[in-house]
From TrEMBL:
It comes from the Bacteria. It holds the Pfam family FAD_binding_3. InterPro entries: FAD-bd, FAD/NAD-bd_sf, Flavin-dep_Halogenase_NPB. This is NAD(P)/FAD-dependent oxidoreductase. Residues 6-309 form the FAD-binding domain. GO terms for molecular function: FAD binding.
Length: 413
């Protein structure tokens, strides 16, 4: 580790790894810093198919294909009554190979990105914590303060900081930029099971979203390699984690109310203990400043339901990395230059956010909406794929909002 860099990237998840790879490839002296030891555990194993494109940009598609991870070709929904939707097969919508994606082991996937950044010339260090980001009198970033694995504190000069600190959101918290969505204060309880019953054929690797009878919670079912499946329960934070028993008791209570999931776990064995996390949805009201830019969960977080997190992180990492490289070339490291990509990104991401809010509207059924409006199946599949950065991405929402209001009025009468 040197005393000065062009760019310091904090956090070696998908957003940080991608950003560091792009800036290093662009010829910038780059330092990538991770607070934990690499590889490290992380939840969020399911990828959207559009992940293919940032992975291709990073030169990693062949490595991902050869990693042995479970291929994901579809998404399926199961109602609170246990009724299964027809699977949304991505290849039926688009026959290109980019329609196949993966259920990854995040420790291995994130290390692949960490190693790729190093291959492209970044200095990559783990077990190193960010203590502070430093600014000059004009509010421009001048460097970072790090606490290294040996316990020593080091000041590193740099011209740009890319904050990829995840839900820690270091700069957003330091600068008061975080805005929590009061309607999406969720929590998750999850664990890993061996020999859960999966779908058949091309649906074997499907991410399955299963609602409980009350619709107060839902489960994810994410088949991974080596016969292991990630199973998680999500609900309002107050509902899942306050005033109830242990996470194990709460998980079992919700499982008993999930007719679609119980049969899949009858002969399965849980591996290790359950984990919990708060999954609060939030956005930042400023995404870049002079000499700094936010990416990944440090930029914002929606919800785990449609598995958009890793794709969004990679996409932001690549876009921000490009903006930093272009900024150095133009001798312009202003907020406008470094964050020039963010409005287009938010415009696309808002369609996933709208779909999340529809999912959490108890009166509304996506399955019923599809029966009423089969012409929108292609648009919905686009959203599940992650194909959101085009002018027709939100074309179904006028009809969906009418359907939601109709359902609310019907339930109220």
């Amino acid at each position: 580790m040197k005393s000065a860099y062009d760019c310091v990237v904090i956090g070696a998840g998908p957003a940080g790894g991608a950003a560091a790879a792009i800036t290093a490839e662009g010829g910038l002296e780059t330092l990538l810093v991770e607070r934990e030891q690499v590889p490290r555990f992380h939840v969020g194993e399911s990828l959207m198919p559009e992940t293919y494109w940032p992975l291709q940009r990073l030169g990693l598609t062949d490595r991902v294909k050869n990693a042995g991870w479970q291929v994901k070709k579809s998404v399926q929904f199961v109602t609170h009554r246990g009724t299964e939707s027809a699977p949304f097969f991505f290849r039926q919508h688009d026959q290109r190979e980019c329609s196949d994606t993966w259920q990854v082991e995040r420790s291995e996937f994130d290390k692949m990105l960490f190693d790729r950044a190093a291959e492209l010339g970044a200095d990559c260090v783990d077990q190193t914590r960010l203590s502070d980001v430093q600014f000059d009198a004009d509010g421009r970033t001048t460097g970072v303060v790090l606490k290294c694995a040996d316990g020593q504190t080091r000041e590193i000069d740099c011209k740009v900081v890319i904050d990829a600190t995840g839900q820690q959101s270091f700069l957003a918290n330091k600068l008061g930029l975080k805005e929590v969505n009061p309607d999406l204060k969720k929590a998750a309880i999850w664990g890993y099971y061996r020999d859960a019953v999966r779908g058949e054929g091309d649906n074997e690797g499907a991410t399955i979203i299963l609602q409980t009878e009350s619709k107060d919670a839902w489960f994810w079912f994410i088949p991974q390699s080596r016969g292991i499946t990630s199973i998680g329960c999500v609900g309002d934070n107050d509902y899942l984690l306050k005033g109830r028993g242990t996470p194990e008791q709460t998980f079992q209570e919700e499982l008993d109310k999930c007719p679609g999931l119980k049969p899949r776990l009858e002969n399965a064995t849980r591996l290790g203990s359950l984990r919990t996390a708060k999954e609060f949805s939030y956005m930042t009201k400023q995404h870049a400043g002079d000499g700094w830019v936010l990416v990944g969960d440090a930029f914002g977080f929606i919800d785990p339901v449609y598995s958009s997190g890793v794709y969004f992180a990679l996409e932001m990492g690549v876009r921000a990395g490009d903006a930093v490289v272009q900024g150095f070339a133009a001798n312009d490291l202003s907020a406008e230059r470094l964050g020039a990509w963010s409005e287009e990104f938010k415009q696309g991401a808002k369609w996933v956010r709208k779909l999340v809010h529809a999912f959490y509207t108890k009166e509304f059924s996506i399955g019923r909406f599809m029966k009423e409006h089969p012409e929108h199946r292609s648009n919905l599949t686009d959203l599940l794929i992650g194909r959101i950065f085009h002018e027709r991405a939100g074309q179904m929402f006028d009809d969906m909002e009418k359907s939601i209001e109709k359902a609310k009025m019907s339930m109220a009468s």
